[in-house]
Amino acid sequence: MNNQLELLVEMGRHFAATQDIEETLARALARIAELIEAEGGALFILEPSPTAEAGTDAVDQLVCHASFGPVDIKGLTVPAHSGIVGRSVTHNRSEIVRDTQSDVSFDTSMDAQSGFITRSILCAPLSVKDERIGAIEVVNKIGGAGLFADDDLTLLEALATSAALAISNARMAGELAEKEVMRRELELAAEIQRGLLPTRDATGAVPICGVNRPARVVSGDFFDYFTLYDGRIAFTLADVSGKGMNAALLMAKTASLFRCLGKGDLRPGRLLQRINAEVCETALRGMFVTMVAGIYDPLSGRVVLANAGHEPPLLHATDGTFTGVPASAPPVGIPPELTGGGPVPEQVLHLNGGTLYVFTDGATEGYVAPGEELGTDGFQDMIRCGVADGLAAQARIDRIADSLSGSGEVLRDDITVLAIDDAQALQKRRDRGDNVSVENNPGREACGKPKQGQPETAVVSNGSMCALSVPARASSLKLVRRAVGETAAACGFGQEQCQDVMLAVDEACQNVVRHAYPDTTEGDMVVDIRCERGSYIVLIRDFAAPVDVALITGRDLDDVRPGGLGVHFIREIMDSVEYMSPPDGHGNLLRLKKAI
Amino acid sequence: MNMEISIAQQPGLSVVAISGDVDLSTSPKVREALLDCIGIGKGVIVDLSAVSYIDSSGVASLVEAFQNAKSKAQGFALAAVSDTPMRVLKLARLDQVFVIYATLDEATAAMA
Fold first, then answer.
1. Which terminus of chain A, N or C, has less C-beta within 10 A?
2. How far apart are CA A505 and CA A481, in angstroms?
3. The pLDDT of residue A195
């Protein structure tokens, strides 16, 4: 009895110290063999056979996990019903074979292979309640004729009971540890996910802010925003169907696509089209993402918005009215061949000092009290109250999230709200004396699809003489040449020089048109023309993969072959040609300079 | 200005008159028109009097046509090159490579 208790305590302690069940078993077996005075022993564990085909009844096997004595049989596998061990496990009872030579179940082939002579066997099943774990077998009593007595079997049974209990406990502890590992993994995933969201701005200078409250540890919602090279802000908010780990992973993928593609594509509608194409290539069937993408220009208060199947964003105008912007395309994740593809139609909003709210249905369908949804009306009321209480946009949306997560219940769905507050930007526009539109009715232009063949241009003014954002295609070059011709003349260049500069810029843009983007994707290029300290400067920006500058060479003029001429023209005409690093490290930026 | 091409067949000669902007979007048409004329008669004259703009892709089309004509022992000349294309040819040092006549009549007389 003492031996038994000691063994149980020792195994428990050993397992707790090492967390290694195999080593604990080996030590326990050695200890048992020592107590029984056996020459050798083996501990078998019942396991499902790896060769059993899926769908068929599981075939179990017995695997030796610990071995003691002159012959090491660790790893030996026998069918679950064979031999003395199998019999012991199957019937959950101890076996004593006083003399192996007279027992028909005894498999003599092993002895023939190992050279070990098995004279006598004791075998006790390892089981706890109805759970069959395996069996312990010891062979040959040391001394005498090498045969075991009934007393030995009683001792082995007692020790086996303790060992089984220890193994069962260790297994449970292992499962708990595994669950703990899973929980920590999930925490790490949530941490990474929080890292994908933009950091909160403490200065109050950023006109855009958001809040995200996951219903579980990880979230299927996300929002993001970043400032473009010209001060405009690209933003997105999306809701992946589902709330589990699969939704979280698709969220991470979609968020990354927005970051990568969003810096190169300045048209939200086309951006969503491209994200959809990427998601559809790999997404799991039946998962989709409702998504809003847009670009806000603080210099004009203008927002270009594309909505793929998402809850209508709400514009809260300064006069207190709310206007919704309904979805104009199905969600991301619907294959383009089903919807006809094409860019998601864009809509233009003028914030005029108002605030645009983009949110997931978790916000409007969340419970403010048990069984009572906030609803779109409630959402609007909370915004009105927030404004009346003088709260900043961040505090306004935080209060909405608090009201939903404070109802004492687990959240029904992830809650995400993004707000773009144009109030400060409007004040700046007024201070600057811009011709600010003060109509109360927020004008909404329906852009629809961009017209084919005509370059879409977005002209910005940020200190430069002229900045054009045009599709990187040959038909855009004429427009670029006109802008260069006009500005070069305005800077004081003579007619021939104007022609030259036009040629140089055209050639530089041609390189973007021809080489920057892969054939399958359409990208933008931005041509920014400046007149600084007696120099005419043209910055040409694309958003494609960086070029290897070393590969761009001028042509050997003795070699009269087509190609390579363009670079030669640029170098001949301009005083300096430099590849610069773009402000946000994305794409390529070429700087052409010529003294006036 | 939109690019236009007109081709006039004279006895033994093709006269290709180009007008407007020859750039990346229009030069493929110029290339095609010029290559189509190679192999017919004694040679090709390209009238550049009405070209308002030409870039490297346009120049490359002229160079390619010139090389093709040479390989077929045909004449290839530029005529009445206006200031803008002439400036570009000079920048490319190709004014020394091409056969250039001041007027279309001179070119026709020389190549007939």
1. N
2. 7
3. 84
